[in-house]
């Protein structure tokens, strides 16, 4: 564990401002996670082929995240700071990709849009994680990551409901076969505006601390400059990661396998199992798909309220991060599994409310634990490397892991993908028991 740095405690609104860009990032992720499978199905993709269409996104993240983290650790400009340049360029490319994604006329175009969108969001996202560790003392890091989660929850709820809202105000929700409905196009356009403007808000309202010893910082950068030295340094950090990070990585692996399964299969699973709708050009299917977005919004709304509770608690008392995370994952696992057993659509709100508890914890507790166990000078690269434990399970899932596992363990019905997701979250919760370092599991 790192020694507490001599950093001032920040107010709620200072932490809010430095995290506000996550609202836009989550607009991008929520629209991507809630509606890209709908776009793929509309363009003719079979259900079992959907995970493969998602594979470019995690593959890109596997490469982009450590590199961006490494570069941001070694960036400093008196005016623009360390992390903020990455916020800006990621926002520009994310905005463009998000706007044009629903105008795809072929599967390869939609998959390409997803690839560009995910890569661009990652350019902005990883430095946001590192910024919390840069700016906050260890005693405030759980609080800082929870505030991020609060903003993420708001973004998830609003963005997931945008196509439904567009339909309610009269925007067409159906189109010719193979054409994306206008309700989805409008939702993605609004998301693009929110993404750029919220990240710009953080850039304009947040200042960064300069390196403690600027001369030493520049000397270290000169010594490690060059492509080969950079790649060598990244691999050195990967193979030399702290033991705690490996244990947290195991928890992350099963957590993100579960959520990738949800993003890939929630629309076909719920529209087929609950609404009995399979024709993607029908009114019944498109209304059901809008409803899926509404239910996914519930997990964002719940994560927002759970994050509010955690923010209040962590601002007042020290918490056991490991136990909070373990029981939150158990709740999410139960929520996914219950989807198989319910018969009424309104019950999905209960299921996804439980999922939202897990989501709030996934976006805060692992990062708070990680930030207490790594060298502050390498926070960016380690945050990037840590996210390899997010993208690797997604790659495995996309390459057939989901299709193979749910059919092997449970049965042929696509709703069993949600049971698989729940089982994976419960395993993730149990993996927390391997983490025993009190300095990591408890607030500083």
From TrEMBL:
Keyword Transmembrane helix attached: yes
Record localization: Membrane
Membrane topology: Multi-pass membrane protein
Main localization of the protein described in the UniProt heading: membrane
Name by which UniProt lists this protein: MFS transporter
Transmembrane spans: 12-31, 51-72, 84-101, 145-166, 186-204, 244-266, 295-314, 323-341, 347-369, 381-402, 414-435
Keyword annotations from UniProtKB, A to Z: Membrane, Transmembrane, Transmembrane helix, Transport
A Pfam family recorded for this sequence: MFS_1
Parts forming coiled coils: none
UniProt domain Major facilitator superfamily (MFS) profile: residue ranges: 244-444
Keyword Transport: yes
């Amino acid at each position: 564990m790192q020694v507490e740095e001599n950093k001032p405690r920040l107010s709620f609104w200072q932490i809010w401002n430095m995290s506000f860009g996550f609202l836009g990032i989550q607009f991008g992720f929520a629209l991507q996670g809630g509606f890209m499978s709908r776009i793929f199905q509309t363009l003719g993709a079979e259900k079992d082929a959907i995970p493969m269409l998602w594979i470019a996104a995690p593959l890109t993240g596997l490469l982009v995240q450590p590199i961006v983290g490494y570069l941001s650790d070694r960036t400093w400009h008196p005016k623009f700071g360390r992390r903020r340049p990455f916020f800006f360029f990621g926002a520009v490319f994310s905005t463009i990709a998000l706007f044009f994604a629903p105008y795809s006329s072929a599967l390869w175009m939609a998959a390409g849009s997803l690839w560009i969108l995910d890569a661009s969001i990652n350019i902005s996202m990883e430095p946001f994680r590192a910024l919390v560790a840069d700016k906050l003392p260890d005693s405030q890091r759980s609080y800082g990551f929870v505030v991020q989660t609060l903003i993420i929850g708001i973004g998830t709820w609003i963005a997931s409901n945008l196509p439904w809202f567009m339909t309610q105000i009269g925007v067409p929700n159906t189109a010719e076969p193979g054409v994306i409905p206008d309700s989805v196009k409008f939702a993605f356009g609004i998301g693009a505006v929110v993404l750029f403007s919220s990240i710009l808000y953080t850039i304009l309202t947040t200042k960064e601390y300069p390196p403690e010893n600027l001369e030493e910082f520049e000397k270290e950068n000169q010594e490690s400059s060059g492509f080969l030295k950079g790649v060598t340094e990244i691999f050195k950090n990967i193979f030399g990661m702290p033991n705690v990070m490996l244990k947290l990585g195991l928890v992350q692996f099963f957590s993100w396998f579960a959520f990738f399964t949800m993003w890939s299969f929630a629309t076909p699973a719920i529209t087929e199992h609950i609404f009995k709708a399979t024709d993607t050009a029908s009114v019944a299917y498109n209304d059901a798909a809008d409803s899926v977005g509404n239910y996914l919004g519930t997990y964002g709304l719940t994560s927002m309220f759970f994050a509010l509770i955690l923010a209040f608690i962590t601002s007042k008392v020290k918490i056991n991060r490991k136990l909070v995370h373990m029981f939150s994952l158990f709740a999410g696992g139960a929520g996914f599994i219950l989807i198989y057993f319910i018969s009424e659509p309104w019950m999905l709100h209960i299921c996804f409310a439980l999922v939202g508890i897990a989501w709030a914890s996934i976006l805060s507790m692992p990062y708070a634990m990680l930030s207490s166990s790594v060298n502050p000078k390498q926070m960016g690269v380690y945050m990037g490397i840590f996210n390899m434990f997010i993208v690797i399970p997604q790659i495995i899932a996309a390459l057939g892991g989901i299709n193979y596992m749910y059919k092997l363990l449970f049965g042929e019905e696509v709703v069993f993908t949600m049971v698989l997701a729940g089982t994976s979250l419960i395993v993730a919760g149990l993996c927390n028991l391997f983490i025993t370092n009190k300095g990591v599991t408890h607030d500083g």
